[in-house]
Every structure is written in structure tokens, then in C-alpha cells.
Design goal:
By secondary structure, this protein is α/β, with parallel strands linked by helices. The protein is built from twelve helices and 14 strands. Strands 10-9-11-8-12 form a five-stranded mixed sheet, with helices on both faces. Strands 4-1-5 form a three-stranded parallel sheet. It starts with a helix and ends in a 29-residue tail after the last helix. Residues 1-20 form the signal peptide.
């Protein structure tokens, strides 16, 4: 019995060590290594000063603010579709926020944990306006630019076979070279997440010459990935997202967060660390979500600034609206 108890204790101790590994590493290092893309407008792309902007970049800052108390303590690591998961598996990055679609195989077979969805998207198509294409079926016989190593590559083939049309893929290793090829006329159309297509067109040489078709052919739930076996870190990453959504639901903004922490609703006070002692339960300061919201705002502010009306993309909230406003964004309660 003593042997079994000792073995059980050692197993629990080993598990606790594994689970605390990433949080301890980030705290000791003093920076968060965040895997992002280098060319998706609205999600993560460097501006003229080299500062990353976009929804994914803001999530990196929110996590850094929650864990380290400073949104500036992020090292952005630009990754391709081919090396993004390997970079997370190897420990090169602490969390992956790179327009990555959550799928069964990615969640179950590559040693990674899919976090909550932070953007509901779908695979779309872009084409020249002068082509007069109104729906995907009218692209029969077209050449289609697509990025290698993405779900879009396989979904393109599945869609063509299911609908008995011919779509000839022209495959590119990097999104930036794919964009260059499409805008130079090498392909008749281009396929990617609809939001990414809108972002690419917004910075094209002649944006008015192109359009994103209204039809999407897949579900593309995007969100963060962490490593398996590190439950504490995965919980932190997940609850930063839930906290940003809960903040929008509760009317907590970047501008009023400090005020709400002092005299807001019971939900706001739990969220912002005034009551409930939530942060200590996951190894963080109780001001963790207050710091995150002060750094980037609530989910609605993050959306609006990067891809909504306050951005070049002008995307509607659509599925990404709060559940109370007809969308699918729903925070697990802070209680």
C-alpha cells in the first residue's frame, strides 16, 4: 500500500511539474513567445514600424499582460503554415495564434490542445470583379491560388469533387507569394479564409478591382493552440479569451476597466479581481484580466479595431457577435 501511495504521489508530482512548465518558463524568461503569421492583415502582420497588429497579435498581448503584467513583454515569432505546429511542439513558442483552424486531427493526433474559438470563419474565394463571377460554381475550369499545408488545400479538392467541377490548384508555400501571384494575374481566383482574403484585398495595389465571393465552402473555427500535458497553461490561454468576451458582455472596456473593478457589477468585480480570488487558482495575480483588458480592450474592441468598422477590412460581426446579439461568441461564466 505504501509503495502504491508513493508511486501515486510521484505521478501527481510529475504531472504537476509538467503542467506548470510553460507558466514557469514564461515567468522566468520574462517574455511570452507567441507564434503568429507575418502577412494576414487584421490578424497578425507587422506595420511600417515593425509592430505586429491584428486580432492574433492583440491576443498575444492580452496573454502577456495577464501572465506578466505587461502587454509589451511579447516576442512575436513569425511562422509559416508548414512550421507553425512544429514550432509549438518543440517549445520554440509558448502559444500559437496564427489563423489556425481547429480540426479533429489537429486536436487529437499532433500532441497539441485546441483552445476556444476566437474567430468563426469560412473558406472563401476572391476573384477579379471584371470576371463577373457571382458564386463558386461559376469558377469551373479556373486556376485557384492556394497555400500549401492548410485546410484550404484539401477542402478545395473536396468541394470540386462533390460539386463535379474542375478547380485547378496552384499551390504556394507562403501566403505572401500566393497574394503576389494572384494580384499579378497568375491565377483566376484565390482561396483562403474569407477574412484573410478581405485583408489581402485591402492592401492590394488596386483593391476596387477585386471582390470576395459571398459564398463560403467550409467551417473554419480559428483559435489558439497550446501543448498537451500542460493543463494549467492551456487553462490560462482559454480563460483570457473567455475573459475578453465576458468583458464585452458585462460592459467592461479598456477605458472603464479600473472604474468597473472598484464599483461595477458582481460579474465585473469577479472578472477584474476585486472579488472571488480567481487569478490565484491558475497561478496568476488577481488583476490578470484587468491587466489584459486594460492592454487590448474587450473582445468587441479587439474585433472592431482590427477587422471591423474601425479597420480597412470593414467586416461585420456576423457569427462573431455575442450570443445575445445573434452571434456565436459565448463566454463560460466567471463563477
Amino acid at each position: 500500500m505504501k509503495v502504491l501511495m508513493l508511486a501515486g504521489g510521484l505521478l501527481l508530482a510529475a504531472t504537476a511539474t509538467i503542467q506548470a512548465a510553460t507558466l514557469d518558463t514564461v515567468k522566468q524568461r520574462g517574455t511570452l513567445a507567441c507564434g503568429v503569421s507575418t502577412g494576414f492583415a487584421g490578424f497578425s502582420t507587422p506595420d511600417s514600424q515593425g509592430n505586429y497588429r491584428g486580432i492574433d497579435a492583440d491576443y498575444c498581448r492580452a496573454i502577456a499582460a495577464a501572465v506578466l503584467g505587461d502587454a509589451a513583454k511579447v516576442r512575436f515569432v513569425g511562422l509559416t503554415a508548414q512550421n507553425r505546429f512544429t514550432a509549438l511542439q518543440s517549445g520554440e513558442v509558448d502559444v500559437l495564434l496564427r489563423n489556425s483552424t481547429q480540426t479533429f486531427l489537429r486536436d487529437a493526433t499532433i500532441g497539441l490542445h485546441a483552445g476556444p474559438v476566437n474567430f468563426y470563419d469560412g473558406q472563401g474565394f476572391a476573384a477579379k470583379r471584371e470576371a463577373g463571377v457571382a458564386k463558386v460554381a461559376e469558377l469551373d475550369g479556373a486556376t485557384v491560388c492556394v497555400a500549401q499545408g492548410t485546410t484550404h488545400e484539401s477542402t478545395l479538392g473536396d468541394y470540386a469533387r462533390a460539386n463535379r467541377i474542375t478547380l485547378e490548384p496552384v499551390v504556394f508555400e507562403r501566403p505572401d507569394t500566393m497574394y503576389q501571384a494572384f494580384f499579378s494575374g497568375r491565377c483566376d481566383a484565390m482561396t483562403q479564409d474569407a477574412s484573410a482574403l478581405a485583408g489581402a484585398i485591402s492592401v492590394a495595389p488596386n483593391p476596387a478591382d477585386y471582390m470576395v465571393l459571398p459564398e463560403t465552402i467550409s467551417k473554419e473555427p480559428l483559435g489558439p493552440f497550446t501543448r498537451n500535458g500542460d493543463g494549467q497553461w492551456s487553462t490560462i490561454v482559454a480563460w483570457v479569451h473567455h475573459g475578453l468576451v465576458e468583458a464585452e458582455e458585462a460592459g467592461v472596456t479598456q477605458a472603464n476597466a479600473e472604474e468597473q473593478a472598484k464599483g461595477g457589477s458582481p460579474v465585473a468585480q469577479r472578472l477584474l479581481g476585486t472579488s472571488g480570488d480567481f487569478g490565484s487558482r491558475i497561478g496568476l495575480d488577481n488583476r490578470w484580466m484587468l491587466n489584459a483588458i486594460k492592454a487590448v480592450g474587450n473582445y468587441g474592441e479587439v474585433f472592431e479595431r482590427n477587422v471591423g468598422g474601425g479597420s480597412a477590412l470593414k467586416l461585420s460581426r456576423g457569427r462573431n457577435a455575442l450570443w445575445s446579439q445573434g452571434g456565436m461568441m459565448y463566454a463560460i461564466p466567471f463563477r
